[in-house]
Protein backbone atom coordinates (compact mmCIF):
# COMPACT_ATOMS: atom_id res chain seq x y z
CA UNK A 1 0.00 0.00 0.00
CA UNK A 2 0.90 3.68 -0.20
CA UNK A 3 1.68 4.24 3.48
CA UNK A 4 4.09 1.36 3.91
CA UNK A 5 6.90 3.74 4.83
CA UNK A 6 4.74 5.32 7.50
CA UNK A 7 6.14 5.03 11.03
CA UNK A 8 2.78 4.23 12.59
CA UNK A 9 2.78 0.62 11.44
CA UNK A 10 2.73 -1.44 14.63
CA UNK A 11 5.79 -3.64 14.87
CA UNK A 12 5.00 -7.25 15.75
CA UNK A 13 6.82 -9.70 18.00
CA UNK A 14 6.30 -13.31 16.98
CA UNK A 15 7.46 -16.45 18.81
CA UNK A 16 7.93 -19.53 16.69
CA UNK A 17 7.25 -23.05 17.98
CA UNK A 18 8.63 -26.16 16.27
CA UNK A 19 6.21 -28.97 16.95
CA UNK A 20 7.20 -32.59 16.47
CA UNK A 21 4.89 -35.49 17.31
CA UNK A 22 2.80 -33.26 19.49
CA UNK A 23 5.57 -31.62 21.53
CA UNK A 24 7.53 -28.42 21.21
CA UNK A 25 11.12 -29.25 20.33
CA UNK A 26 14.17 -27.22 21.35
CA UNK A 27 12.70 -27.84 24.82
CA UNK A 28 11.34 -24.84 26.58
CA UNK A 29 12.80 -23.67 29.82
CA UNK A 30 11.14 -20.88 31.77
CA UNK A 31 12.12 -20.00 35.30
CA UNK A 32 10.01 -22.15 37.57
CA UNK A 33 8.82 -24.31 34.67
CA UNK A 34 11.34 -26.88 33.64
CA UNK A 35 9.80 -28.25 30.47
CA UNK A 36 6.80 -26.62 28.85
CA UNK A 37 6.55 -28.84 25.84
CA UNK A 38 2.80 -28.78 25.35
CA UNK A 39 2.28 -26.45 22.38
CA UNK A 40 -1.19 -25.35 23.50
CA UNK A 41 0.00 -24.42 26.97
CA UNK A 42 2.97 -22.56 25.55
CA UNK A 43 0.83 -20.77 22.96
CA UNK A 44 -1.52 -19.61 25.72
CA UNK A 45 1.41 -18.42 27.79
CA UNK A 46 2.83 -16.41 24.89
CA UNK A 47 -0.55 -14.96 24.08
CA UNK A 48 -0.91 -13.83 27.71
CA UNK A 49 2.54 -12.30 27.68
CA UNK A 50 1.77 -10.01 24.75
CA UNK A 51 2.96 -11.90 21.66
CA UNK A 52 1.29 -10.39 18.59
CA UNK A 53 1.15 -13.61 16.60
CA UNK A 54 2.41 -17.18 16.83
CA UNK A 55 4.00 -19.45 14.28
CA UNK A 56 3.72 -23.23 14.55
CA UNK A 57 6.06 -25.30 12.40
CA UNK A 58 4.93 -28.87 12.11
CA UNK A 59 8.22 -30.71 11.66
CA UNK A 60 6.67 -34.16 11.98
CA UNK A 61 7.40 -36.63 9.21
CA UNK A 62 4.75 -39.29 9.91
CA UNK A 63 1.06 -39.13 9.02
CA UNK A 64 0.32 -40.22 12.61
CA UNK A 65 2.19 -37.14 13.85
CA UNK A 66 0.23 -35.01 11.38
CA UNK A 67 -3.03 -36.19 12.94
CA UNK A 68 -1.75 -35.26 16.39
CA UNK A 69 -0.73 -31.85 15.05
CA UNK A 70 -4.18 -31.23 13.58
CA UNK A 71 -5.68 -31.82 17.01
CA UNK A 72 -3.14 -29.50 18.67
CA UNK A 73 -3.80 -26.80 16.13
CA UNK A 74 -7.56 -26.97 16.68
CA UNK A 75 -7.04 -26.72 20.45
CA UNK A 76 -4.58 -23.86 20.12
CA UNK A 77 -6.86 -21.93 17.77
CA UNK A 78 -9.76 -22.19 20.19
CA UNK A 79 -7.62 -21.17 23.18
CA UNK A 80 -5.53 -18.39 21.71
CA UNK A 81 -6.94 -15.31 20.07
CA UNK A 82 -3.91 -13.86 18.33
CA UNK A 83 -3.20 -14.84 14.72
CA UNK A 84 -1.69 -18.28 14.18
CA UNK A 85 0.51 -19.10 11.22
CA UNK A 86 1.21 -22.72 10.39
CA UNK A 87 4.13 -24.00 8.32
CA UNK A 88 5.97 -27.23 7.76
CA UNK A 89 5.15 -29.76 5.07
CA UNK A 90 2.83 -27.45 3.16
CA UNK A 91 3.08 -28.69 -0.40
CA UNK A 92 -0.38 -28.56 -1.97
CA UNK A 93 -3.70 -26.76 -1.67
CA UNK A 94 -5.07 -29.59 0.48
CA UNK A 95 -2.50 -28.66 3.12
CA UNK A 96 -3.72 -25.05 3.16
CA UNK A 97 -7.25 -26.34 3.45
CA UNK A 98 -6.40 -28.71 6.28
CA UNK A 99 -4.73 -26.17 8.55
CA UNK A 100 -7.09 -23.28 7.79
CA UNK A 101 -10.05 -25.53 8.68
CA UNK A 102 -8.41 -26.17 12.06
CA UNK A 103 -8.40 -22.45 12.75
CA UNK A 104 -5.02 -21.25 11.50
CA UNK A 105 -5.11 -17.68 10.17
CA UNK A 106 -2.16 -17.94 7.79
CA UNK A 107 -0.22 -20.67 6.10
CA UNK A 108 3.51 -20.49 5.55
CA UNK A 109 4.96 -22.25 2.52
CA UNK A 110 8.68 -22.74 1.90
CA UNK A 111 9.99 -25.86 0.11
CA UNK A 112 6.47 -26.46 -1.21
CA UNK A 113 6.67 -23.21 -3.21
CA UNK A 114 10.17 -24.01 -4.47
CA UNK A 115 8.88 -27.36 -5.78
CA UNK A 116 5.68 -25.85 -7.18
CA UNK A 117 5.84 -22.06 -7.60
CA UNK A 118 2.19 -22.01 -8.72
CA UNK A 119 1.02 -22.97 -5.24
CA UNK A 120 1.26 -19.36 -4.04
CA UNK A 121 -0.98 -18.06 -6.80
CA UNK A 122 -3.47 -20.90 -6.37
CA UNK A 123 -3.63 -20.45 -2.60
CA UNK A 124 -3.93 -16.66 -2.86
CA UNK A 125 -6.82 -17.03 -5.35
CA UNK A 126 -8.56 -19.62 -3.21
CA UNK A 127 -8.03 -18.27 0.31
CA UNK A 128 -6.86 -14.67 -0.14
CA UNK A 129 -3.37 -13.18 -0.03
CA UNK A 130 -3.69 -12.43 3.68
CA UNK A 131 -3.52 -16.20 4.33
CA UNK A 132 -0.41 -16.86 2.28
CA UNK A 133 3.05 -16.40 3.75
CA UNK A 134 6.15 -17.14 1.71
CA UNK A 135 8.89 -18.30 4.03
CA UNK A 136 12.43 -18.04 2.67
CA UNK A 137 15.57 -19.59 4.15
CA UNK A 138 18.53 -17.81 2.58
CA UNK A 139 22.27 -17.73 2.89
CA UNK A 140 25.19 -15.88 1.33
CA UNK A 141 26.52 -17.81 -1.66
CA UNK A 142 27.93 -17.02 -5.11
CA UNK A 143 28.21 -13.32 -4.27
CA UNK A 144 24.50 -12.97 -3.44
CA UNK A 145 21.74 -14.38 -1.25
CA UNK A 146 20.65 -17.85 -2.31
CA UNK A 147 17.46 -19.63 -1.32
CA UNK A 148 17.86 -22.96 0.47
CA UNK A 149 15.21 -25.71 0.54
CA UNK A 150 14.46 -28.58 2.94
CA UNK A 151 14.81 -26.62 6.16
CA UNK A 152 17.90 -24.80 4.95
CA UNK A 153 19.82 -27.93 3.97
CA UNK A 154 19.65 -27.88 0.17
CA UNK A 155 20.94 -24.99 -1.92
CA UNK A 156 18.83 -23.90 -4.88
CA UNK A 157 19.74 -21.59 -7.74
CA UNK A 158 17.08 -19.11 -6.70
CA UNK A 159 18.15 -15.61 -5.71
CA UNK A 160 16.42 -14.60 -2.46
CA UNK A 161 15.54 -11.08 -3.60
CA UNK A 162 14.00 -12.16 -6.92
CA UNK A 163 12.23 -15.07 -5.19
CA UNK A 164 10.66 -12.66 -2.67
CA UNK A 165 9.53 -10.38 -5.53
CA UNK A 166 8.12 -13.33 -7.40
CA UNK A 167 6.25 -14.40 -4.26
CA UNK A 168 4.72 -10.95 -3.95
CA UNK A 169 3.77 -10.91 -7.64
CA UNK A 170 2.13 -14.33 -7.22
CA UNK A 171 -0.03 -13.05 -4.37
CA UNK A 172 1.81 -13.81 -1.11
CA UNK A 173 0.67 -11.43 1.62
CA UNK A 174 3.86 -11.59 3.68
CA UNK A 175 7.45 -12.75 3.49
CA UNK A 176 9.32 -14.41 6.34
CA UNK A 177 13.03 -14.08 5.69
CA UNK A 178 15.18 -16.39 7.74
CA UNK A 179 18.90 -15.82 7.43
CA UNK A 180 20.77 -19.10 7.79
CA UNK A 181 23.96 -17.07 8.27
CA UNK A 182 22.72 -15.48 11.51
CA UNK A 183 20.26 -18.15 12.68
CA UNK A 184 21.27 -19.57 16.06
CA UNK A 185 24.22 -17.17 16.39
CA UNK A 186 22.24 -14.71 18.57
CA UNK A 187 24.33 -11.81 17.37
CA UNK A 188 21.54 -9.76 15.81
CA UNK A 189 19.33 -10.00 12.75
CA UNK A 190 20.86 -10.09 9.27
CA UNK A 191 20.28 -6.42 8.46
CA UNK A 192 22.05 -6.55 5.10
CA UNK A 193 19.98 -9.44 3.76
CA UNK A 194 16.77 -8.04 5.26
CA UNK A 195 17.39 -4.66 3.67
CA UNK A 196 17.95 -6.21 0.24
CA UNK A 197 14.64 -8.09 0.44
CA UNK A 198 12.51 -5.45 2.15
CA UNK A 199 13.63 -2.78 -0.34
CA UNK A 200 12.49 -5.04 -3.17
CA UNK A 201 8.91 -5.76 -2.03
CA UNK A 202 5.95 -3.81 -0.72
CA UNK A 203 4.36 -6.54 1.38
CA UNK A 204 5.35 -6.95 5.05
CA UNK A 205 8.67 -8.64 5.76
CA UNK A 206 9.17 -10.62 8.95
CA UNK A 207 12.76 -10.94 10.13
CA UNK A 208 13.95 -14.29 11.42
CA UNK A 209 17.32 -15.60 12.56
CA UNK A 210 19.76 -14.02 14.95
CA UNK A 211 17.83 -12.40 17.81
CA UNK A 212 19.80 -12.68 21.03
CA UNK A 213 18.77 -9.67 23.12
CA UNK A 214 16.18 -6.87 23.21
CA UNK A 215 18.64 -4.47 21.54
CA UNK A 216 18.62 -6.70 18.44
CA UNK A 217 14.90 -6.00 17.95
CA UNK A 218 15.40 -2.28 18.52
CA UNK A 219 18.24 -2.16 15.99
CA UNK A 220 16.11 -4.11 13.51
CA UNK A 221 13.13 -1.77 13.71
CA UNK A 222 15.18 1.45 13.87
CA UNK A 223 17.47 0.48 10.99
CA UNK A 224 14.92 -1.06 8.63
CA UNK A 225 11.63 0.80 8.70
CA UNK A 226 10.24 -1.58 6.12
CA UNK A 227 10.55 -4.65 8.35
CA UNK A 228 7.24 -5.21 10.14
CA UNK A 229 8.01 -7.95 12.61
CA UNK A 230 10.69 -9.89 14.43
CA UNK A 231 10.39 -13.64 14.85
CA UNK A 232 12.42 -15.79 17.22
CA UNK A 233 12.29 -19.14 18.98
CA UNK A 234 14.85 -20.10 21.59
CA UNK A 235 15.41 -16.63 23.11
CA UNK A 236 11.72 -16.60 24.00
CA UNK A 237 11.48 -20.28 24.91
CA UNK A 238 14.42 -20.11 27.29
CA UNK A 239 13.30 -16.88 28.89
CA UNK A 240 16.36 -14.95 27.67
CA UNK A 241 13.90 -12.36 26.40
CA UNK A 242 10.57 -11.72 28.11
CA UNK A 243 8.07 -10.49 25.53
CA UNK A 244 6.28 -8.08 27.84
CA UNK A 245 9.56 -6.47 28.88
CA UNK A 246 10.80 -6.43 25.29
CA UNK A 247 7.73 -4.50 24.17
CA UNK A 248 8.01 -1.99 27.03
CA UNK A 249 11.65 -1.46 26.08
CA UNK A 250 10.78 -0.95 22.40
CA UNK A 251 8.00 1.49 23.28
CA UNK A 252 10.31 3.51 25.55
CA UNK A 253 12.69 3.74 22.62
CA UNK A 254 10.13 5.06 20.19
CA UNK A 255 9.02 1.88 18.43
CA UNK A 256 5.28 1.56 17.92
CA UNK A 257 4.20 -1.74 19.49
CA UNK A 258 0.94 -3.09 20.85
CA UNK A 259 1.20 -3.11 24.66
Layout of strands and helices, then pairs:
Elements: E1 12-20, E2 23-24, H1 39-48, E3 54-58, H2 63-79, E4 84-87, H3 93-101, E5 106-109, H4 111-115, H5 118-127, E6 132-141, E7 144-149, E8 154-159, H6 160-170, E9 174-179, H7 191-200, E10 205-208, H8 214-223, E11 227-232, H9 234-237, H10 243-252
Parallel strand pairs: 1-3, 1-11, 3-4, 4-5, 5-6, 6-9, 9-10, 10-11
Antiparallel strand pairs: 1-2, 6-7, 7-8
Helix pairs in contact: 1-2
Keywords:
single chain; 259 residues; alpha/beta; eight-stranded parallel β-barrel; 11 strands; globular
Short description:
By secondary structure, the chain is an alpha/beta fold. The protein is built from ten helices and eleven strands. Strands 1-3-4-5-6-9-10-11 form an eight-stranded parallel beta barrel, surrounded by seven helices.
Overview of the structural elements:
The chain is α/β, with parallel strands linked by helices and 259 residues long. Helices cover 37% and strands 24% of the residues. Strand 10, helix 8 and strand 11 form a beta-alpha-beta unit. The two termini are 25 Å apart.
Amino acid sequence: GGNRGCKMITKRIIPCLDVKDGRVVKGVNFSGLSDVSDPVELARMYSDSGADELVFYDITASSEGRKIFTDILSRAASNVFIPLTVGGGISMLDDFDRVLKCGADKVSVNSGAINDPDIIQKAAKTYGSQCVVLSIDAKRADGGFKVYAKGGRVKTELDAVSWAKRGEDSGAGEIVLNSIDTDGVKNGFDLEMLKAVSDAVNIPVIASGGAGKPEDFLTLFKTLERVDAGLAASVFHFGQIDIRMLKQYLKQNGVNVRI
